[in-house]
């Protein structure tokens, strides 16, 4: 059984929600819990970084600043806090630099279980909306029952990727750390890379389709690009350090598709069938991320013509608005007349069905 979410009930019982992958479960049955060590480590990194962020905000912006919400995930952190104006660029830079200096100091974290009253007397800061019993775990003078790194050096580095207002008097900072930070820096260069057609091909995949002017709205940027396959994602990851895992493929794709300004350079993206159904860690479908940037989602059809009509209907339902097809005939030294004829026949059948 794969656990997707854990919530604490009003009676202090941890309720786990998940999907049964194989076998069955029954009331009274014994189960063995196993934690994904890599995901847990990345969650630790972003969790501890959240505490550093809150401490630095109080130092740079003011002690009156307090947490108003947060999200800690394996691939990022989100921190909401009360403040009356947007943070200035120099303030964000100071916050980032101070956090990274603390990270480089390799400060050891100490966890102590104390009585709640004693912890507050000692100056410990309580996290937003946390509920504490009489005995509370404290981490570096903040009350927290979550999982943390043993030293700030494990965070490796932190980068603030956005700061914005989400409500009256409430600001939000999003940041990334550790191996996700290296991914972010790699993909952040898209703004420069996408100006070059050659670099666009090397980063996003083979350039496939040129839309003529009569295609109206689809011709805005004149190009569509094929989406990165698992194999290509693996090559990108290997070149910058993070492990070649499904989790990192997902993180890579999410960072790629949510990169600001992507819609300025491409008009369409051809997705693999599996990607068409995937979503970000926030639950937003990748196709919707593309649409928000006026990028038309497409589908790569590579299962042949059998059942194509029903598959095309499902692809359209999921958000795909065009498809890429290629002939099954590959002639290395130039196509013969027979190959051209067979390719044209296959394309005609494909067009008729889809």
Automatic annotation (TrEMBL):
Catalyzed reactions: beta-D-fructose 1,6-bisphosphate = D-glyceraldehyde 3-phosphate + dihydroxyacetone phosphate
Pfam families on file: Glycolytic, tRNA_SAD
Domain Alanyl-transfer RNA synthetases family profile residue range list: 1-177
Keyword Aminoacyl-tRNA synthetase: yes
UniProt entry keywords in alphabetical sequence: Aminoacyl-tRNA synthetase, ATP-binding, Glycolysis, Ligase, Lyase, Nucleotide-binding, Protein biosynthesis, RNA-binding, tRNA-binding
Record GO biological process: alanyl-tRNA aminoacylation; glycolytic process
Keyword Repressor: no
Classification via InterPro entries: Ala-tRNA-synth_IIc_core (IPR018165), Ala-tRNA_ligase (IPR050058), Aldolase_TIM (IPR013785), FBA_I (IPR000741), Thr/Ala-tRNA-synth_IIc_edit (IPR018163), tRNA_SAD (IPR012947)
GO molecular function, one term: aminoacyl-tRNA deacylase activity
SMART domains, sorted: tRNA_SAD
UniProt pathway: Carbohydrate degradation; glycolysis; D-glyceraldehyde 3-phosphate and glycerone phosphate from D-glucose: step 4/4
Protein name (database record): Alanyl-transfer RNA synthetases family profile domain-containing protein
Originating species: Camellia sinensis var. sinensis
């Amino acid at each position: 059984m794969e656990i997707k979410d854990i919530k604490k009930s009003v009676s202090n019982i941890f309720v786990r929600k998940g999907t049964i992958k194989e076998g069955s479960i029954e009331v009274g049955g014994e189960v063995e819990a196993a934690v994904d060590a890599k995901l847990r480590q990345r969650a630790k990194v972003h969790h501890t970084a959240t505490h550093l962020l809150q401490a630095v905000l109080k130092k740079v912006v003011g002690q009156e600043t307090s947490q108003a919400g947060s999200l800690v995930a394996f691939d990022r952190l989100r921190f909401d806090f009360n403040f009356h104006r947007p943070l200035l660029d120099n303030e964000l830079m100071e916050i980032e630099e101070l956090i990274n200096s603390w990270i480089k100091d390799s400060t050891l974290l100490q966890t102590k279980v104390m009585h709640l009253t004693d912890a507050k007397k000692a100056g410990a800061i309580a996290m937003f909306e946390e509920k504490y019993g009489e005995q509370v775990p404290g981490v570096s003078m903040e009350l927290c029952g979550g999982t943390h790194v043993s030293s700030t050096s494990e965070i490796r580095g932190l980068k603030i990727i956005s700061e914005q207002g989400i409500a009256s008097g409430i600001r939000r900072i999003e940041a990334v750390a550790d191996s996700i930070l290296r991914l972010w820096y790699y993909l952040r260069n898209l703004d420069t890379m996408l100006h070059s057609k050659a670099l666009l091909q090397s980063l996003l995949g083979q350039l496939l389709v040129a839309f003529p002017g009569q295609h109206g709205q689809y011709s805005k940027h004149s190009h569509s690009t094929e989406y990165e396959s698992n194999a290509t994602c693996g090559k990108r990851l290997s070149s910058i350090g993070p492990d070649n895992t499904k989790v990192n493929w997902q993180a890579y794709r999410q960072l790629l598709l949510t990169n600001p300004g992507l819609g300025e350079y491409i008009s369409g993206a051809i997705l693999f069938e599996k990607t068409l159904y995937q979503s970000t860690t926030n639950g937003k479908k990748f196709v919707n991320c593309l649409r928000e940037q006026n990028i038309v989602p497409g589908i790569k059809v590579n299962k042949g013509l059998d059942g194509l009509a029903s598959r095309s209907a499902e692809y359209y339902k999921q958000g795909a608005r065009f498809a890429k097809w290629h002939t099954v005939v590959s002639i290395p030294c130039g196509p013969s007349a027979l190959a051209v004829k067979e390719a044209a026949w296959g394309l005609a059948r494909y067009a008729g069905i889809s």
